[in-house]
Amino acid sequence: MNPAPDRSIVVVAGDPGPAAALSPLIGRLRDQGGPPLAVLAYGQALASWRDQGFAPRALADEGWPEAADRLLGDMDAGLVVCGASVNRLNLEQHFIDAARRRGVPSLSLLDFPTNYRARYQDAEGRLAFLPDRIAVGDADCAREMAQIGFPAERLRVVGWTGLDALAGFREKWTPEARQTLRQGLGLAANDLLVLFVSQPLRELYAHPSLRGQGPGYDEHQVLALLLAGLEGLAPDLARQGRRLHLLVRTHPRERADKFREVRGRDVRLIPSPGGQALAEAAAADLVVGMNSMLLLQACHLGQLVLSLQPGLQGPDSLHTNRRGQSLAVYDAAQVPDSLARALLDPDFRVQALAKLTDLMPDGQAGRRLADLAWAMYNGAESSLTQEDQA
What we know:
Layout: E1 8-13, H1 16-32, E2 37-41, H2 44-51, E3 57-58, H3 66-74, E4 77-82, H4 91-102, E5 106-109, E6 133-136, H5 139-147, E7 155-157, H6 166-172, H7 175-184, E8 192-197, H8 201-204, H9 219-239, E9 244-249, E10 268-271, H10 277-283, E11 286-289, H11 293-300, E12 305-308, H12 319-322, E13 327-329, H13 335-344, H14 346-354, H15 365-377, H16 386-389
Parallel strand pairs: 1-2, 1-4, 2-3, 4-5, 5-6, 6-7, 8-9, 8-11, 9-10, 11-12, 12-13
Helix pairs in contact: 1-2, 1-15, 3-4, 7-10, 9-13, 10-11
């Protein structure tokens, strides 16, 4: 009598952030062999995973929630691993619900510590789509989630998988590579490059589950403040024979030409060609944004990061701000002075950068996530020790 075939591990995501966070897990599961692996994608996750050679299956826009139950049955799922998104489809929620009804264990990965409840709640605001386990990046995140109603026993700390690739990048990144990138963008040797990291906040907080819960600012306001502050510095720099360049990097969920109408006077605006986020961050003299994963990555690359969150409502989700490792500005009136210090004050820069010298992740978050997934698949998750989860 032939043994029963292994049940499959099904991985699902739709947004680029969750897709990137789950990529280390998919790579490990694929390379280690074992049970069949089914990668299901919609939205921007589809192109992201195709580019990485994961051969995802595209999910349709219609037919839910019935399609989730049918797919899990067709694939004989033994574990469902999902991203955690807030978008118009939120298909991950249907897979978590279908897994629960089928008695299949489910695991969700939180890619960034924002919008906790919105990722798992129904139209009435109830946490109706909780998986069996949620993997989070750090103990602060787990504590914050428990404080707003998430069952603590479902939370597991694995680290931020989005930081795992930084060690390899830092080993390959050289002064010559930095110079080549800057020259390719049209910079002279002593020019200054500021990278603006956008996020689709205006669109995101128009979502029904997040309406009225915005942070008090959006990407258009922040870019306008940043550009105005840089324009104030540009004339003095020009008298020194130096020019300011602002590289504008849109988020994968944004149109590449989103800021096409924004014009600089003395500051040269450069639309990012895309595709090399870490290299652009590492090549900049200053990285500016709000609270995105790329800002966190830039800090861990030893780059000076300015987080502009004017009129912030609610807690600051960028934990490097809370720890003083990035520079947070919550008052719009302080933006010009903060930019001047961050770009032009050598003593200030040395002191700020000194706080980043030991800021390097261990690169093992993907391994810990894979260990958690395997334990759940094998029904042995409770055997994981606290050391394994740290």
